[in-house]
Amino acid sequence: MRESGDLWKIRERSLDQARKAARRGDPEGLHDLRVALRRVCATANALGKKDVARRARRIVQSLSKQRQLQVDRQLLARLGKLGFVSPDAVTALASRWEKIAIRGERRVVRAAEGRTVRRLIRRLDRLARHNDDSAMARLEKARRKAESSLGQAIEGMDDHALHRHRIAVKKARYLAEDLAALGLRRWTNQVEHERLVQETLGHWNDLRLFRRRLSASRDEAEERGSVMLAAELEQLLALLEPALAGIRREAVDASRNTAGVVPIRRTAAR
Questions:
Q1: Which residues contact 98 (CB under 8 A, 6 or more apart)?
Q2: Half-sphere exposure of 24 (CA within 13 A, CB side)
């Protein structure tokens, strides 16, 4: 059975690796950095290290727009290859979005190299040197609390509520992974189930936010008098509606019974 210090060491190494990847400009570096920070946040909140959670959350929030832009550019390129968007429209949007991305890339590098993330890594290193005998019980309590938020019916949820549910599934999964990492292998199946649910909800959320950016780009094109581009984007938005609705239904179906698969058992001794 592992100790809490081992868990903090895992978080420290993952964050440092992701930070270096983001600094190098690796394709998935930004994504990996935000995931590593979210995991730190979940663990820190459960184990009562609120200052650590706040630092991690601030960095994640500062990089949210850049990550979504990265996803939007990937979706645009994919739709272009599939022929849903004309080459001229892809070029026009890609050029405009690239300028925004270049400015955001500087923010990513600053975040990866900045004092905040380096201090956070040093803090995780200090936490890794000590073991907390109450860590398992704290994590189990946090997991039960996370599960309680997943028990509500999701049918009929609006997009904002479904988005909150997506975040709750992610948090519950991270806590299950923490428990599994500490040696409670019965959580492995639950982790896999929630990972699949989270992925489905993530696809829906990505397409939803992509549609929002396309809508804003259509409005901008209309204001600039780019009639043809605005018309093409209007057609694309109409084509995306049934796809978005279908993915949303899949996300809702996958989200049923996201909690309660594995009963919690108190650990009397390790």
A1: 73
A2: 11
Helix intervals (H) in 25-63: 29-46, 50-62
Which single residue is written with the structure tokens 């405009």? 96
Structure tokens at 225: 């008098």
Helix (H, G, I), strand (E, B) or coil at 192: helix
Alpha-carbon gap, residue 27 to 38, rounded angstroms: 19
Q: Are residues 55 and 120 in contact, defined by beta-carbon separation less than 8 angstroms?
A: yes
Contacts of 10 by beta carbon, 8 Å cutoff, 6+ apart: 181
**Separation CA 40–CA 8 (nearest Å):** 8
| 95-150 pLDDT tens trace | 999 999 998 888 899 899 999 999 999 999 999 999 988 999 999 999 999 888 88
Query: What does 231-252 look like in DSSP terms, one character per residue?
Result: HHHHHHHHHHHHHHHHHHHHHH
CATH class of the domain defined by 4-255: mainly alpha
Q: Longest C-alpha distance within the chain, in Å? A: 71
Question: What is residue 149's DSSP assignment?
Answer: T
Dist CA 21 CA 35 (whole Å): 13
